[in-house]
């Protein structure tokens, strides 16, 4: 059974810092990995989707990497801003399945 | 519509009552998913539809939970004899196709509170 772990559970940084969020998964046979953002009381907003054949994806100040063989992904946020404060969720689609397995998320607080 | 729409956004019900939660996916998306998120946890899979049929319902916790998608678009999640442990945010997502190849888009969720 696929399990997804996110470290750290919470992170607090001052504005302007670069930061890395970590995600690991136990079964490397995946179709893809997706990073989401969730604001309090809201649904999930997709940030980046990395297919299993890809190594990284970039969108603005966000860069996500994937090392499928070691079961790891990182989300790099450059020059963090208070508006980046949210919970960041990592999810994988395992090979042979069509559904997402989520981690518990990293709660990020960026202070002005 | 532009995105996945879920109604109601909040639902408070008494223990033992029946509730229905509605999801309107992005137009043209054939795959539709229901997830449940408890406080401080990541979403957990409940059921997946490809078209009108339930392709995978292995995440439904018990037979009090049931979902339909009769015309391959709107879906309704139905919970009978609600219990306090059913309190959670119920999230719906859709994608252009199944088999994990494409991006999933989520709605804002329905927060269910059973008192």
Structure description:
The complex is a heterodimer of chains A (112) and B (115). Chain A is mainly beta and 112 residues long. Helix content of chain A is 0%, strand content 60%. Chain A contains no helices and eleven strands. In chain A, the strands form two sheets. In chain A, strands 2, 4, 5, 9, 10 and 11 form a six-stranded mixed β-sheet that branches. Chain A has a five-stranded antiparallel β-sheet with strand order 1-3-8-7-6, with no helix packed on it. With 115 residues, chain B is mostly beta strands. In chain B, the strands form two sheets. In chain B, strands 2, 4, 5, 6, 9, 10 and 11 form a seven-stranded mixed β-sheet that branches. Chain B has a four-stranded antiparallel β-sheet with strand order 1-3-8-7, with no helix packed on it. The model of chain B has no long low-confidence stretch (mean pLDDT 93). Chains A and B meet through strand 4, strand 5, strand 9 and strand 10 of A and strand 4, strand 5 and strand 10 of B.
Instruction: Show the largest interface.
Output: A-B, 27 and 30 residues
Give the N-to-C terminal Cα separation of chain A. 41 Å
Number of strands of chain B: 11
How much of the residues of chain A is beta strand, in percent? over 45%
Distinct helical segment count of chain A: 0
Which term fits the overall shape of chain B?
globular
The share of residues in helices of chain A is: under 10%
